[in-house]
Amino acid sequence: TPGYGDSPPVEVALTAQGRRAFLDRVLQELGMQRPVLISPSMSGRFALPFLLAHGDQLAGFVPIAPVGTKDFAAEQYRAVQTPTLILYGDRDTGLAPQALQNLQHLPKHRVAVLSGAGHACYLDKPEDFHRALLGFLRQLK
């Protein structure tokens, strides 16, 4: 995610509008048509503004305990019609419960909890993660 970890700061990452536009540009440059957007942790700052503005461009959304869910109102989430798999590890007792509390307002969501996994549940339980993700992808149109 630009501006996080060891990546250099990026001016566009300073506002939600800038982050949404950045992600929109990336998807356009890659020529992606209705991708499934997977958003772990810090990438939520980019994915959530994009989802709320352009969710109709996505075939699906998979938030994995993303940051920034509290920055938006329940009504904003309720307007999104993108099929969503809310995925997290049951040992992520910090960010996951907050994300679930906010993201459960997405009308077309389902939840997958990976037992014995922490915040990076895809690293802790990769087989369970892939099983949940592939199950979700198979049911998308």
From TrEMBL:
GO annotations of cellular component type: cytoplasm
Main location group: cytoplasm
Locations listed in the record: Cytoplasm
Keyword terms of this UniProt record: Cytoplasm
UniProt xrefs under InterPro entries: AB_hydrolase_fold
Protein name: ABHEA protein
Species assigned in the record: Emberiza fucata
Gene: Abhd14a
